[in-house]
Specification:
Helix content: 10-25%
Number of domains: 2
CATH architecture of the largest domain: 3-Layer(aba) Sandwich
CATH class of the largest domain: Alpha Beta
Largest sheet: 9 strands, mixed
CATH superfamily of the largest domain: QueA-like
Number of strands: 17
């Protein structure tokens, strides 16, 4: 499909620069068989059914942006995928200044060697020393806010908390699973009281989620691989939900992509551990999920293609035009949508 089929007008002032406060005070646009409805995130218990199950991503964002020098040249690195105990794949600003074997000094006694360059222009960085890389990043790294936010304001101290979900437990993501940013302990208690369960899985979100689609056709776009895991017990409980007539509702496109990767055609959800580069576009037949809660995505993005696959491209374009006209807030710190095909 042509990429321009997924374009739409989005005024830049609709991109939220800070989250709603409190988190569950965000608005929520509900699309279901009865139409399109203006709701709030706090209405989620009444918008679902007893027996439904929400699936959250428990990945934790690491301070994955680094500023360094190779001699006099400035080098910026955004880590996006772990490849070994001390090796990370990174997108590099100033990559033309790098050669294999170059050392980059990130300050704070943190340095890395550029080893191999990938076909996508990224570099493998091997961090020096014996300290865990997580400790090095805590000293030298910054929170990797999306460029659509970081380009408009500086990174603030509050982002260290704002850009983590309440489920964040397993460090390794360089972008937050932002649909889950709306959840609070009070909302989770209300969901439980309404008979709505929840499960967690892990998908370490990579910086590739921010990359623009440069191809003219979806067939020519390559997704970056991300590592994820669903254990057998979680898969069994999710299958039991569907067997009882409940619905599996993914919270965020990251949860959805991993659930679909773990489910063979015609089969139940299975245990999964490894890389996924699944690219979901219209025509895809969903196997694992019955609905999706997600934020509002950018034009021409793989995420808007995914929601178009779930609900239909024309319906999503109409819904997004409605959201723009009614001042819904877009992207990572923005409002939510609940999509129930």
């Amino acid at each position: 499909m042509k990429i321009d089929l997924f374009d739409f007008d989005l005024p830049t002032d609709r991109i939220a620069l800070h989250p709603a406060s409190p988190r569950d005070a965000a608005r929520m646009l509900v699309l279901d068989g009865a139409g399109t409805h203006d709701r709030g995130v706090r209405d989620l218990p009444a918008s679902l059914r007893p027996g439904d199950c929400l699936v959250f991503n428990d990945t934790r964002v690491i301070p994955a942006q680094l500023d360094g020098r190779r001699g006099e040249a400035r080098i910026g690195a955004t880590l996006h995928k772990r490849e070994g105990p001390r090796r990370w794949r990174a997108f590099v600003k100033g990559a033309k200044r790098l050669r294999e074997g170059d050392a980059i000094d990130f300050g704070h006694d943190v340095s890395a060697t550029a080893t191999t360059r990938g076909e996508d222009g990224s570099w493998a960085l091997d961090f020096a020393g014996d300290e865990p890389v997580e400790l090095l990043l805590a000293r030298a790294g910054r929170m990797p806010l999306p460029p659509y936010i970081a380009g408009k304001r500086g990174i603030e101290a509050r982002d260290a908390e704002d850009y983590q979900t309440m489920f964040a437990a397993d460090p390794g993501a360089v972008a937050a699973p932002t649909a889950a940013l709306h959840f609070t302990p009070a909302l989770m208690a209300a969901l439980a009281a309404a008979g709505i369960g929840h499960e967690t899985l892990t998908l370490h979100v990579g910086a590739g989620t921010f990359l623009p689609v440069k191809a003219e056709d979806t067939a020519d776009h390559r997704m970056h691989a991300e590592w994820g895991r669903i254990d057998a017990a979680t898969a069994a409980r999710l299958n039991a939900v569907r067997d009882r007539g409940g619905r599996v509702i993914a919270v965020g496109t990251t949860s959805l992509r991993l659930l679909e990767s773990a489910t063979p055609e015609g089969g139940p959800i299975a245990a999964f551990e490894g890389d996924t580069a699944i690219f979901i576009t219209p025509g895809y037949r969903f196997r694992a999920i019955d609905g999706l809660m997600t934020n509002f995505h950018l034009p021409r993005s793989t995420l808007f293609m995914l929601v178009s696959a779930l609900m239909g491209r024309e319906r999503m374009k109409d819904a997004y035009a409605y959201a723009v006209g009614n001042h819904y807030r877009f992207y990572s710190y923005g409002d939510a949508s609940l999509l129930l095909p």
